[in-house]
From TrEMBL, chain A:
Record's GO cellular component terms: chromosome, telomeric region; cytosol; EKC/KEOPS complex; nucleus
EC number: 2.7.11.1
Protein name: EKC/KEOPS complex subunit BUD32
Species assigned in the record: Penicillium salamii
Similarity comment: family membership: Belongs to the protein kinase superfamily. BUD32 family.
GO terms for biological process, alphabetical: tRNA processing; tRNA threonylcarbamoyladenosine metabolic process
UniProt signal peptide: none
UniProt subunit comment: Component of the EKC/KEOPS complex composed of at least BUD32, CGI121, GON7, KAE1 and PCC1; the whole complex dimerizes.
UniProt catalytic activity: L-seryl-[protein] + ATP = O-phospho-L-seryl-[protein] + ADP + H(+); L-threonyl-[protein] + ATP = O-phospho-L-threonyl-[protein] + ADP + H(+)
Molecular-function annotations in GO: ATP binding; hydrolase activity; protein serine/threonine kinase activity
UniProt KW keywords: Activator, ATP-binding, Chromosome, Cytoplasm, Hydrolase, Kinase, Nucleotide-binding, Nucleus, Phosphoprotein, Serine/threonine-protein kinase, Telomere, Transcription, Transcription regulation, Transferase, tRNA processing
First-tier enzyme category under EC: transferase
From TrEMBL, chain B:
Protein name per its UniProtKB record: EKC/KEOPS complex subunit CGI121
Function of the protein: Component of the EKC/KEOPS complex that is required for the formation of a threonylcarbamoyl group on adenosine at position 37 (t(6)A37) in tRNAs that read codons beginning with adenine. The complex is probably involved in the transfer of the threonylcarbamoyl moiety of threonylcarbamoyl-AMP (TC-AMP) to the N6 group of A37. CGI121 acts as an allosteric effector that regulates the t(6)A activity of the complex. The EKC/KEOPS complex also promotes both telomere uncapping and telomere elongation. The complex is required for efficient recruitment of transcriptional coactivators.
The organism of origin for this protein: Penicillium salamii
Family (UniProt): Belongs to the CGI121/TPRKB family.
Compartment list: Nucleus
UniProt xrefs under InterPro entries: CGI121/TPRKB (IPR013926), CGI121/TPRKB_sf (IPR036504)
Keyword Nucleus assigned: yes
UniProtKB/TrEMBL annotation, chain C:
Cellular component, GO, one term: EKC/KEOPS complex
Known catalytic reactions: L-threonylcarbamoyladenylate + adenosine(37) in tRNA = N(6)-L-threonylcarbamoyladenosine(37) in tRNA + AMP + H(+)
The protein's name in its UniProt record: N(6)-L-threonylcarbamoyladenine synthase
UniProt-listed Pfam families: TsaD
Protein's organism: Penicillium salamii
Ligand binding (substrate): Y135, V136, S137, G138, G139, D167, G182, E186, N294
Assigned keywords, A-Z: Activator, Acyltransferase, Cytoplasm, Metal-binding, Nucleus, Transferase, tRNA processing
Length: 267, 199, 363
């Protein structure tokens, strides 16, 4: 089978030196690391390539709607002071690289240093496996994870308070931006929680949407971090006190937990 | 008059060098504006009232937006220089963008931008023309200078960002972590507005 | 090993006979016959009428299949039937027939999940080893991938099935149900040029079609394109309408609406399939179910798969559309692992999720 080749970069990034480096390729978007508009500061570049299988009119309509939706959510969250990467530049009508013409859309964001929470927790779990700790030390370690969970809950609360739901919350879409002073040799669980990847985000203040956000994250923690699952109740504690609407969203979360993500489903 | 015209190769758009100068205590703003309005080719610049810009990143974001639209034949206004002024505006109203961000008769501190859209426009030709055309003190295009010139309340009002906290210019607090963060948040909000215009 | 497969979960009654040679060589289709209950234009098929159709044809079809396959009753090892999901009354007619044959001939029964039947038949015919499966029919819309002994549903419709959406719009336009409403929409869509704006509803890996149907039904009404009268004009002036629709802002034609509906719903299906492929890291995609025989859907899926460095596997109407051999094929795979359905449990069910089946025959 042929090697997968990502589509050519849209202009002007086909002229960028050094060329942007591909980090991840999802179904809809490719994420690159490149320089921001300041050559000494890096940036994240998200590209939504044109989808040749779609009718060109539909393709433009969808690509534009989605990239601007993501950009609007980011800009709104920046204004509200929620911890997300800043929107630096945007083109919803990107021009193709060499061939010219329509080439999808792109969005440039602030580069966030650090690990995603998934990686931070994996490192911690691996470290815990090797370290021989007494009960007291184990509890102290777990307290660090609980503190992280609370910070995550608070960050999601701030997001929801701003009227945005993420749509795809996992431990891969939460980052830990390291604090400047790193004086411990423990696995880093400190730092600011930054929410990333708003590709499926939308503006909503509905309890249902907020509850589904939390439920999806709870499930993600349970499936990818079995050791941390019991500590995830602190996620809810962190969330509960973060804004006025939190208790009502949490009440809905209880229903969602019972019935699953979807409202109703027939065979 | 010693010129401190800075020439910038923007990342991603290296084929369009950008020349930027900042002047304080400008004496002939009305003249410059009239030349611009008369369409005098040698006065084709982006003349921006420096009180309406917060920082280098704020200016560069507008320049990048205008240059990217220029490079892809999507200008909404007359030329790339008027487009830079327009790109500072959060809405699609071109006349409004000139009233808000462009040079006025009363402009004291002036930001001047020229793009090398042809090989005849070089750092030296721009520097030579500006030193004879602008009556004012050339200062450096840096964050500190721009912040001093900025009118935070007017900027916030133009971008409908009244709810955001304002960074202070008080010397004892200006470098505090909190003030730096406040200014960064305002700057990020401005960049977002510039990126999203017309979306 | 020889199995009879009996399928009747919707308006097709299918009887198939399948041979799995003892030497391990590829399975062979010995007979694959089908009889479809076709309702008049503008109407869907009702459960009781469909069940009556299946009851009156099932014996005839079984006899014909045995004759075509040149096998005698003694050669048959088991009788496989569709347990669900599907429409209650038609399912019941077929399960009663299967039970009767089981008692009459003294053969064991194997109840089969209809969706798993489609998947296994698709894998057999195309040779796709571990594809992401898009299962699209009048009753189902699912994106499925195999993982640890289950066909897991990654995405599905949140309301109606895509085939149901197409069929119901065919009714609005009074398009013939012969041979199938979706087939006739596909033919009409080939003359469409103008894309009208329709809702596009994808949520993660799920999608929804009811809003699209309401919107396009509304457009058909607004432009006076529905109903029996307009349907008669299709044949008469297909070339004329195609020419008219090329001018900009022109009033959409019936063909334009069919074209726009297909372009929109198929884009949604390809999008959720691509998302599932990215999620599980697969480069193969297999399309099964009646809607899977649509060539435009296959073409779009092919472009997507090619851009991902993969390929699409699809089958023609003999295997895509409901049939008996797919039930025989999946049933025999289960039978080979020792699975049996005792007479007392040989019921059928309208709701039977794909992921409920324990897939013992795969690693």
């Amino acid at each position: 089978m042929e090697e997968y080749k990502p589509p050519a970069l849209p202009s002007p990034f086909n002229n960028t030196t050094p060329p942007p480096t591909l980090l991840t390729q999802g179904a809809e978007a490719h994420l690159y690391k490149t320089t921001s508009l300041n050559p000494s500061i890096p940036a994240a570049l998200k590209i939504r390539p044109s989808k040749p299988y779609r009718h060109p009119i539909l393709d433009r309509r969808l690509t534009r709607a989605r990239i601007t939706q993501e950009a609007r959510c980011l800009a709104k969250l920046v204004r509200e002071g929620v911890s997300v990467p800043a929107l630096l530049a945007l083109d919803w009508e990107g021009h193709g690289g060499e061939e010219g013409g329509w080439g999808g859309a792109w969005l440039m964001m602030e580069w966030i240093e650090g690990d995603v929470v998934r990686v931070a927790l994996e490192k911690w779990e691996a470290w815990m496996k090797k370290a021989s700790l007494d009960d007291e030390q184990t509890q102290a370690q777990e307290a660090r994870v609980r503190a992280l969970m609370r910070k995550m809950g608070a960050a999601i609360g701030a997001l929801h308070k701003a009227g945005v739901v993420h749509g795809d919350l996992t431990t891969s879409n939460l980052m830990l931006r390291p604090v400047d002073e790193n004086d411990t040799n423990e696995v880093g669980l400190d730092g600011d929680v930054v929410l990333i990847d708003f590709g499926l985000a939308s503006q909503s203040a509905q309890d249902e949407d907020r509850a589904v956000d939390l439920y999806v994250l709870e499930r993600a923690i349970a499936s990818t971090h079995p050791r941390s699952e019991g500590l995830a109740e602190d996620l809810i504690i962190g969330y509960r006190d973060s804004y006025k609407g939190a208790p009502s969203a949490l009440k809905r979360l209880e229903d969602v937990r019972l019935r699953g993500r979807k409202r109703s489903m027939l065979g | 008059m010693a010129s401190s015209l800075e020439t910038i190769d923007l990342p991603h758009l290296p084929s369009l060098p950008v020349h930027v100068a900042v002047y304080q205590n400008v004496q002939n703003a009305a003249f410059l504006k009239s030349q611009l309005l008369a369409g005098q080719p040698e006065y084709e610049y982006a003349f921006i009232d420096a009180s309406m810009v917060l920082s280098r990143a704020h200016v560069i974001a507008a320049v990048f937006r205008a240059l990217n639209d220029y490079a892809h034949n999507r200008l909404k206004s007359h030329n790339v220089h008027s487009e830079i002024v327009f790109s500072l505006n959060p809405t699609n109203n071109i006349a409004e963008s000139f009233r808000r961000f462009g040079i006025s008769d009363s402009t004291q501190d002036l930001l001047v931008i020229k793009v090398s859209t042809s090989s005849e426009i070089t750092h030296d030709t721009v520097a030579a023309h500006l030193s004879s055309a602008v009556e004012g003190t050339s200062v450096s295009f840096d964050d500190q200078t721009l912040f001093e010139f900025s009118d935070i309340n007017k900027i916030k009002k133009s971008y409908k960002l009244g709810a955001l906290p304002s960074p202070t210019k008080a010397t004892d607090q200006v470098a505090s972590k909190e003030n730096v963060e406040t200014k960064q948040r305002l700057e990020n909000a401005l960049l977002g507005a510039i990126a999203l215009r017309g979306s | 090993m020889i199995a009879i497969g009996m399928e009747g979960s919707a308006n097709k009654l299918g009887i198939g006979i399948m041979l799995h040679p003892k030497d391990g060589s590829p399975p062979q289709v010995l007979a694959n016959i089908r009889h479809t209950y076709v309702s008049p234009p503008g109407e869907g098929f009702l459960p009781k009428d469909t069940a009556r159709h299946h009851r009156s044809w099932v014996v005839k079809l079984v006899k014909q299949a045995l004759k075509e396959a040149r096998v005698s009753v003694a050669d048959v090892d088991c009788i496989c039937f569709t347990k669900g999901p599907g429409m209650g009354a038609p399912l019941q007619s077929v399960v009663v027939a299967a039970r009767m044959l089981s008692l009459l001939w003294g053969k064991e029964l194997v109840g089969v999940n209809h969706c798993v039947g489609h998947i296994e038949m698709g894998r057999l015919i195309t040779g796709a080893t571990n594809p992401v499966v898009l299962y699209v029919s009048g009753g189902n819309t699912q994106v499925i991938a195999y993982s640890s002994q289950r066909y897991r549903i990654f995405g599905e419709t949140l309301d109606m099935a895509v085939g149901n959406c197409l069929d119901r719009f065919a009714r609005t336009l009074h398009i013939s149900n012969d041979p199938a409403p979706g087939y006739n929409i596909e033919q009409l869509a080939k003359q469409g040029k103008q894309l009208v704006d329709l809702p596009y509803v994808v949520k993660g890996m799920d999608c929804s079609f009811s809003g699209i149907l309401a919107a396009i039904d509304g457009l058909a009404k607004e432009w006076g394109l529905g109903g029996e009268e307009k349907a008669k004009e299709d044949d008469a002036k297909s070339s004329e309408t195609a020419a008219a629709s090329e001018s900009l802002e022109a009033k959409p034609t019936r063909a334009d609406l069919c074209f726009s509906l297909q372009e929109t719903v198929f884009s949604m299906l390809v999008e959720i399939t691509e998302r599932a492929m990215a999620h599980v890291g697969s480069k193969q995609v297999l399309i099964v179910g009646g809607v899977g025989s649509n060539e435009r859907l296959q073409e779009m899926m092919g472009i997507m798969a090619r851009d991902r460095g993969g390929s699409v596997y699809a089958t023609d109407e003999r295997f895509c559309i409901d049939n008996g051999i797919m039930i025989a094929q999946a049933g025999m795979l289960a039978y080979g692992t020792g699975f049996r359905t005792p007479l007392s449990e040989s019921t059928c069910t309208q709701r039977f999720r794909t992921d409920e089946v324990f897939v013992k025959w795969r690693d």
